[in-house]
Design goal:
By secondary structure, the chain is an alpha/beta fold. It is built from twelve helices and ten strands. Helix content is about 45%, strand content about 10%. The mean pLDDT is about 95. It binds Fe4 H S5 and zinc ion (2 copies).
Length: about 300
């Protein structure tokens, strides 16, 4: 297959778009598509400050790279979870994030060390809470809280994550499988700030297949941590991804249509009915909004120590 833009040999063939591009024109297309998503979903403007959630993996580093190349004011936040598991996962992923920042003078990386700040790493909190093998819900709670805190304290307008189409389609699949209507209501490329202490959240890569973000990092020579978090093994989201990959194999574009048609349906009003939003109030300790009667779930985690 030849590159559609110049006729040279193609480096990546995207069957779902019926598009083949070379190593020069694929990154160009990738930037254009990201810019289009940012504009179409009104994610943020050039005057706004963006905080990118950096894991050290390919999607988050690719997102940071693209936003910098597009001229956005983008800083990164890396949450050091203290996960070792015999593979120094956190230490190695932090090194990748720091190395990227060091190569980009315009990029500032904020590192949040959970063990240092709160006295326990994620595996230690999970151990104390009798969930040593399944720390993900605690980890997710801590990451969400800390990213929101850094975004608000740093005066950032928006928090951007590198979720790609494979991630979003797998989440959608899980939500539909269990008809989790509240989750479906909140699944969208932009979640507005709520004015009560929750930052705006955006996913500029939500329409890229994972192999496209992988191709971008490869062509741009971005060094990232290839391993998944050791606790990700066996996660249902991975099983959903495999199911969707099989469907994609038999019917190219299946994954993209599943997700983008959901977005179109939502824009046309699906799930728009007034939800019974829980009453929120600021947590007396951290001031972040919570529906819990007193301290928020994050602060309660540490109270019980
Ligand atoms: S980092 Fe944390 Fe993930 Fe690791 S412990 Fe689970 S939630 S798998 S995205
Ligand atoms: Zn070309
Ligand atoms: Zn709190």
């Amino acid at each position: 297959m030849r590159c559609r833009r110049c006729g040279n040999p193609g480096a990546i063939n995207m069957r779902q778009h019926k598009l083949s591009l070379c190593t020069e024109h694929f990154p160009e297309w990738f930037l254009e598509q990201t810019q289009r998503a940012i504009k179409n979903y009104r994610m943020f403007a050039h005057a706004e400050r963006v905080l990118v959630a950096i894991s050290g993996g390919k999607d988050s580093l690719a997102l940071w790279d693209v936003l910098l190349k597009l001229g956005y004011q983008a800083d990164g936040v890396y949450i050091d979870l203290g996960i070792d598991h015999g593979s120094s996962y956190s230490a190695r992923s932090k090194d990748k994030a720091a190395a990227f920042a060091a190569q980009h003078p315009a990029a500032r990386l904020i590192v949040v060390d959970i063990l240092h700040l709160y006295g326990e790493s994620i595996p230690q909190v999970a151990q104390r809470r009798h969930r040593p093998q399944r720390p993900c819900s605690i980890c997710g709670l801590i990451k969400r809280h800390e990213m929101n805190r850094v975004a608000l304290e740093g005066g950032y307008d928006v928090l951007a994550t590198g979720h790609n189409l494979d991630d979003e389609a797998a989440t959608l699949f899980g939500n539909v499988l269990h008809w989790q209507v509240d989750y479906l209501r909140h699944q969208f490329p932009v979640l507005p700030a709520d004015g009560q202490g929750l930052a705006r959240k955006v996913k500029p890569f939500c329409r890229f297949y994972e192999r496209e973000t992988a191709a971008y990092t490869l062509i741009r020579g971005i060094d990232y941590i290839e391993d998944e978090c050791p606790y990700a093994t066996g996660a249902t989201s991975l099983a959903h991804k495999e199911t969707l990959n099989r469907m994609e194999h038999d019917s190219p574009g299946a994954k993209m249509h599943f997700y983008t048609n959901f977005l179109k349906a939502k824009e046309a009003g699906l799930f728009a009915a007034e939800e019974t939003a829980p009453e929120l109030h600021p947590c007396p300790q951290c001031r972040q909004p919570t529906s819990a009667p007193d301290l928020c779930n994050f602060c309660r985690l540490w109270e019980e120590k």
